[in-house]
Amino acid sequence: MTRWLRLTSAGAVSVVVVLSIAAFAAAPAAKPSRAPAVEDTLLRGRFLVISHVCGDCHGGGSNPAATGWLAGMTTPRQEFRIGPCAAAPNDACFKTRPRNLTPDNLTGLGRFSERQIFNALRYGLRPGETPDVEITSAVPGQGNFPAHPKYLAVPMPWTSWRHMPDQDLWAIAAYLKRGVKPVRNKVEDSEGPPDFWASAYTVEKIGPYPAVAFPAASENRQQ
Ligand code: HEC
Q: Rounded mean pLDDT of the chain?
């Protein structure tokens, strides 16, 4: 029984508890389709993607059963207009476009490794323009961090997501690559300033990573 519980993914535990005695007596139970550790990682990634509103921008809202789940923008209404035009509609704008996060090899994340997706979420580096290497510093030119980083366009909220623990970011990358069906949907490239948003992502504007120690000036530690 204990062994059973360990071998079974978390979501199925309650079912197993109810059915295990009968199942043991009758026929051999169906094997999980993947090793439990892999299944757990994919479910963790799925939970994080749903609860962090990735689908609100990338397609499908909070519903993995929705058509176009994470397949990227499909209508101009999902495009963001960033820059002076926000105040004056006729002024200049950068149009930025939520990309296809399904593992399609031509138009989605199929072209990139899980490490490139990890680096996008932790460091905001565009997977298509950043080498597939382990990065150990957030300082340009150090620890494999590109000297001239090509950052993801705003408003992709990587500056918040980067604070998730490593394991969670790896789980998201695993889910996007291995837990979602590929959808072919070519999203036109985002527009942006020549510095690829570097001036929008300074420590002064987005805060340090890792975050400062608790409690910071505006925080309280109550016992
Ligand atoms: C507020 C809207 C918004 C939300 C929420 C959002 N994204 Fe994005 N994301 C974008 C935009 C816009 C881009 C395109 C950036 C660019 O073109 O440089 C993008 C790009 C990406 C890319 C790069 C894909 C590529 O092919 O270059 C990844 C990976 C990604 N998002 C993952 C996520 C994940 C995972 C979540 C949820 C945890 C998420 N995004 C939530 C707007 C969003």
A: 88
